[in-house]
Specification:
Rossmann fold, globular, 4-stranded parallel β-sheet, 249 residues, 41% helix, 10 helices
Length: 249
């Protein structure tokens, strides 16, 4: 484990600053998570950024294929990665994948370092006032009810997507996983879908798949509040490592 302490008064950082460990099960979402961590920081020098240790391992078994087809459970591999990150110096672990959190008890509860829940951190970003929320995520995530339970417990109401709209979201996720972009025709379908949500009094949308974070800056989200799960997890990770607040945007 590399442990570096500052030795010059011009090159310094807080002694209690921790290290973020990232288990990356999907490459583009993992890169987006790291980008979001760095974009939240008002750095003046390189050393103003935190240490981040990333295990980007796309060979970890598919969460969807495990849940739908009964193939290999990814939990032991995620758990092993978290503990390896801890041995390398990580003081908190994150898994930037919402669907993986269906299996959280298998990899997050007995790890050697704290592991943040992307579900809890995302829901905590909603204001105290009651919202009507649409959850855009994988079919498996929606079937699990994780977000629905957390949102209703916090007093919010949940808009249920119809089958056609869920198909659009699934297609967007699949495209983003391999190429970090979607086609113009998919953008058009997504835009029509978002307009339907507005007309049905949805005032908040949760990007409950970290692949969807890749297109959150697109203009189609205008006039609706968007909560990005990857950004929520990034903010929480910085909080958990005691990152200095005067350097946060």
């Amino acid at each position: 484990m590399v442990n570096i302490v500052p030795v010059h008064s011009d090159v310094t950082w807080p002694g209690n600053e921790g290290v973020i460990g990232v288990v990356g099960v999907a490459p583009w979402a993992t890169l987006n998570f790291c980008q979001q961590v760095y974009s939240l920081i008002d750095a003046k020098k390189d050393w103003d950024y935190p240490r981040v240790i990333v295990d980007s391992n796309s060979k970890i078994p598919s969460r969807g294929r495990h849940l739908q087809l009964g193939e290999r459970n990814p939990s032991p591999f995620i758990f092993e990665s978290i503990n390896e990150l801890a041995k390398s110096g990580a003081t908190v672990a994150v898994v930037p994948c919402n669907t993986a959190h269906i299996l959280f008890s298998g990899w997050g509860e007995n790890a050697t370092i704290p592991v943040l829940s992307i579900i809890n951190e995302t829901v905590s970003c909603l204001s105290a006032s009651k919202k009507r929320v649409a959850i855009l995520g994988s079919k498996d995530l929606l079937l699990s009810g994780l977000y629905q339970h957390a949102l209703t417990a916090a007093g919010h109401s949940v808009h249920v997507l119809n089958c056609q709209h869920q198909v659009v979201i699934n297609e967007c996720i699949s495209a983003l996983k391999v190429s970090q972009t979607i086609t113009d025709s998919l953008y058009a379908e997504l835009e029509c879908f978002i307009n339907v949500l507005r007309n049905q009094s949805v005032d908040t949308i949760i990007l409950a798949c970290t692949e969807l974070s890749l297109i959150k800056t697109h203009s189609l989200w205008q006039d609706v509040k968007v909560i990005d799960s990857n950004e929520a997890l990034a903010r929480a990770a910085l909080r958990e490592i005691n990152f200095r607040k005067d350097r946060l945007r």
